[in-house]
Amino acid sequence: MSPDAGLRLAAPGPYPDSRFPAEPEKLYGAHSRTSHRYQDKGKHYPVLGNGLPLSPGPFPRNGERGETVRCLTASSPPPARFGKGAGGLGNGLPKPRTPPRRDSHPDLDAYGARSRTSLSDQAKVLNTLVFSCLILALFCPSSLRAAPLRWQSFSTENVIAFYLSGHRAQARRLAARAGDSIRDIRARLRLPPSGKVRVYFYPSHRLFTRDTKTDPHLLVVGLAYGKDDTIRVDASGLFEEAGPVLAHEIVHILLNRAVSGNREQIPLWMNEGLAKYLTEPWRPETQDRLADAVARGNLIPLEKIADRFPADPEGSALAYLQSASFAAYLDALYGEEAFPRLIALLGQGYGLHRALVTVFGSSLEELEDNWKGSLRETYKWTPWANTASWAVGILFVLIFGAGYLAFLRKRRRLIEKWRKEEHAEPEEAAED
């Protein structure tokens, strides 16, 4: 291809008969708005702003006015892909290729390059969006927080119930059970009326853990907040029925109200022990677990669970069992009036030690030692019973195994006898 074959240029204004204007200062092309001079062997050629010289071509005649160049001449193919690996000319433009059709893509011009937004610009925009999302996720988590729940409410004699749309019937049923529990617990602990209890009913465990910010793996199904006397309950029943959970949390609220000015004097073992003892039945499996702890000597001292329970599931379950067992022991030994008197004294400003001595006549250490002694007396036969049960099981397996072996031997003897009889019959027939 001749080096003179290149861009056709049509610039405004008349031109002389020569091939190029004498002093071209502003020539317009498809890729550049301003041009500069290009020196080659002493000649001056107008070049585009990207460094590609303009080769000679037919210009408008004198007096004619052209328009901005939009395409190459037929003898000069358009550029290929930009970059070093595409065979560039060194000035930023690629080597020419066969020109694409104008109607092949709406965003491609005659050069084969995108005329609206290049691919590199689109990549930059995408990277900017991704980076912005990462910044929001790291430094602005509140902007990604889920929308708050829209609660609806109704009020009964003892409960202000909050529920989500579509779950009013469930909330009505559970609010009625909560009202019954409030009346029973007040009567049991001799507590005066103290206003309504606010209860939030969550229709799913996912919404409950998300709104209360609890770990889903801990399987928490109910929470009581003493500051505003509010209860939040997982009403789905997925892990535990909501009725007993409500009653358990109601004990916490009523107990905190009864000693509102002296809450720090109520230890955790007393708060959780009363709630569990008054609202949950004593199941055989829980009794077996407590008996095993007594036999192994793994009981937790009450002073270690006065402020918090162990974090591990086994230790936490044992702490709940011990608290309920201690409450049951005091209630059975000193009567149903013991805990109402103790709560009343704490509400009057008594310290825990003084209140225990006044009601039970003994300190906490003495009461704890007596309780542990009663547990050891109650479950003293448990290790032997467990050993005996294991022995009986092993003996049963041995007897069963011996019987099965005897059956196999008898079956083998019968088979051998039948085979001998079958061989004896053909021999007798042959002799006859």
Can you tell me about this structure?
There is one protein chain. The chain is an alpha/beta fold and 432 residues long. Among the domains are: 115-145; 150-258, Glutaredoxin (3-Layer(aba) Sandwich), CATH 3.40.30; 262-380, no CATH class. The protein is 46% helix and 8% strand. The protein has eleven helices and seven strands. A five-stranded mixed β-sheet has the order 3-4-5-7-6. A two-stranded antiparallel ribbon has the order 1-2. The radius of gyration is 46 Å and the shape is extended. The N and C termini lie far apart (120 Å).
Summary keywords:
432 residues, alpha/beta, Glutaredoxin, five-stranded mixed β-sheet, two-stranded antiparallel ribbon, 11 helices, 46% helix, extended, disordered N terminus
